[in-house]
Amino acid sequence: MHPADDTFAAALVEQLPADTLRRAEPRYLEEPRGKWRGLSQWVALPRTTQEVSTILKACNAARVGVVPYGGGTGLVAGQVSTDGAALILSLERMTAIMGVYPQENAAVVQAGAILADVQAAAAEADRLFPLSLASEGSARIGGLLSTNAGGVNTLRYGNARDQVLGLEAVLPDGQIWNGLKRLRKDNTGYDLRHLLMGAEGTLGVITTAALKLQPRPAVTGTALLTVASPQAALDLLSLARTQIGDGISAFELMHRMGFDFLRETLPDIRQPWESPPEWAVLIELGLGRDQSPQEALETLFAESFEAGLVSDGLIAQSAQQAQDFWNIREHIPEGNKRIGSISSQDISLPLSAIPEFIATAGPALAKLGDFRINCFGHVGDGNLHYNVFPAQGRSRTDYNVSDAVKTCVHDLTDSFGGSVSAEHGLGRLKVGDLERYGDPAKLAAMRAIKAALDPNGIMNPGAVLSS
Amino acid sequence: MHPADDTFAAALVEQLPADTLRRAEPRYLEEPRGKWRGLSQWVALPRTTQEVSTILKACNAARVGVVPYGGGTGLVAGQVSTDGAALILSLERMTAIMGVYPQENAAVVQAGAILADVQAAAAEADRLFPLSLASEGSARIGGLLSTNAGGVNTLRYGNARDQVLGLEAVLPDGQIWNGLKRLRKDNTGYDLRHLLMGAEGTLGVITTAALKLQPRPAVTGTALLTVASPQAALDLLSLARTQIGDGISAFELMHRMGFDFLRETLPDIRQPWESPPEWAVLIELGLGRDQSPQEALETLFAESFEAGLVSDGLIAQSAQQAQDFWNIREHIPEGNKRIGSISSQDISLPLSAIPEFIATAGPALAKLGDFRINCFGHVGDGNLHYNVFPAQGRSRTDYNVSDAVKTCVHDLTDSFGGSVSAEHGLGRLKVGDLERYGDPAKLAAMRAIKAALDPNGIMNPGAVLSS
């Protein structure tokens, strides 16, 4: 692999409109966790799919690596070139919302469109684009699809890959695949969409997407319920599904540790209790015009209280109160950050294994040291953020067990049939985890596909598969 | 490619338990439309994934083709070996429902399980497995997933591929991929599930699947509404979605021609009108415990009548009446069969293009001859079955335009951004259509993937890609 150095840039610049290539500013070399630093010297900022094609053709011919770049919000270092000086290919100029089709529940957007802008365009047409996550103000569609992002609405609407009808992409040799169909049923050969989604830019560059929209729930309701245990949270989810059907948009589990951290580090975040509960669930409903979420939540509370699942609870009485509840949930990661974790893991488990996993993981970790654990997340879809912190009064520099903690959590996750990367992807951070926990036949197939579609290995080298 | 002849069978039989290999009975050589006839001499009937692996290893070593075989219900000849004597690999002995996990909304089943049995196992656990189609009494899970089958519930729940959490499969070289995870979020590398699904057995054999289940709608409602036009049907769907949200399970468009054919060929099928309407919609709701589908349908009828979309309608007052309505819809294909079509196409279109497509296709076809057209289908997801018949009193043998009709319908579909294979797949029937209408970059990528995963081309040779 050759570096995207000044010589290469000088040749490429001839093939592109003015100002398409720039020296890489520091922001292209950083990632949110501050643990990796990219070595790229140049960034390409194409305005059209054709320009993306020109760039990939040149890189492929010159054996120069390319790192596709969206909003730069990824948490696993998929967006930085660390073991070479690959060209950063940023989609930030391709941000058009090309069409919204309310009657079809569809929209076509370029890969550089920011998630919040896509959500807004859908809302303007009285539709919902349901993908929703903390970084939605800066994350871009291309990156979200390439990493198959998750978020809070997966329970109801699925992951990023489930929001896609069609894609346009540039393959590693520069060929443009026009698969931009707005169809719900299309059985004409291998599904390249799903192969590119989740490949984290290692098989090509998504340039445009035809997205599914959803009917916008006419009325919403939010409640914060104190549950007896993780098992009670799952029983509550079952009960809610029987009662309310598909109308549950989010179902988040939170632990007391998260509330304590918030109180300590972000005291302005309003918390509705004197003494925080051990476990709480945030539930959000989105229902049709003629339904009452308030009534549904009241019935759910009454029945779950009766069944001993829920001991206390608040049903939001205003949009402000609903926002306050969400504010707690959304600030938990910031609280964690301010406390400073020893190890943070994004895992998923079969739903029924969650209670036993949580019961087992604490004692297993206790053998490695004295920790505080904040386990929370999108429990409705089995996704836990399992974060381990120093004991009260101690600092993480007192500990030297970060790897051991990670391995302990991952081994346990794997033994319960879970995944060591639920919604964040592999990037560069978890290449070794795939080798450790991945199925050998799958790994062999992945390598064969990578070699077939990107024989020169130019696409995001070092991400997903070791190069 | 070598044939699976007696010499090969004699060698393979040594590696397998008694009675795993049999001479291919006629049923393995036929397909429902009676247009293709397989040449296979031998069928393998493995009992375990390990045996499937043994068989594929032997075939791969000997360069012998393998045709994976489910329920044999496919309509595009994907299940018959016509240009060689490939080994039929039937999953009919691997039918176990291995586990049902109601709290997870998941089930694990072997590939040979019949769809109706999976539906029943889900219902027994008070859950819904939503995939539903005419052949559900004989179609098997492995075939349904490999062909990404559609059906009547796609609008609400998606296609077959959307029902899958994890897969176990045997790859062409005999390696077993264990990807049988019951996870909603798992971002650990390329999505092999979605690559195998829709590949129609050309990249490996699905042996077991972890499936999503859904909460079972507590209450259902069915209505048969007379709509003014296809456009009115789409406007009705929009209105229904705004009003009812996600609760619409099916939304089927039917044309008068279908009712006329039924009256002529199957007069025992009860029809609720004296003179059939030009266009009608069958709508089914499935709602939560505290909702009333009856009320929702009444409101929908009142509002759509007011808006001039619907001129008449019946809301089923009993399960029997709902069944009668569905009976009409489900017998339309049989009525078509008895009349005898010149050409039957399974197409899909962007929803908003449907009215113009229908308005354009009739006059375009009229230039080729005097036809009767029955256009019906899962309009909620853009899937039309577009069937062309001889004029009243004439026979299809009077016509010699079957290919011209097909090309006319397909060209028009393609020009509207549609798909020439919506839910049936490509099989052997539509290999040429993929070459004609498929994107060249996609085709090149498909060929590269096929060569990478199945370098000897043993998997379902002649299906999907020309061999």
TrEMBL record, chains A, B:
Residues 35-216 form the FAD-binding PCMH-type domain. It comes from the Bacteria. The keyword Oxidoreductase applies. Keywords: FAD, Flavoprotein, Oxidoreductase. The keyword Flavoprotein applies. GO terms for biological process: respiratory electron transport chain. It is an enzyme of class 1 (oxidoreductase). GO terms for molecular function: FAD binding; oxidoreductase activity. Coiled coil: none annotated. Its cofactor is FAD. Transmembrane segments: none annotated. InterPro entries: FAD-bd_oxidored_4_C, FAD-bd_PCMH, FAD-bd_PCMH-like_sf, FAD-bd_PCMH_sub1, FAD-bd_PCMH_sub2, FAD-linked_Oxase-like_C, FAD-oxidored/transferase_4, Oxid_FAD_bind_N. Its EC number is 1.-.-.-. Belongs to the FAD-binding oxidoreductase/transferase type 4 family. This is Putative FAD-linked oxidoreductase. It comes from Tropicibacter naphthalenivorans. The lineage of its organism: Bacteria, Pseudomonadati, Pseudomonadota, Alphaproteobacteria, Rhodobacterales.
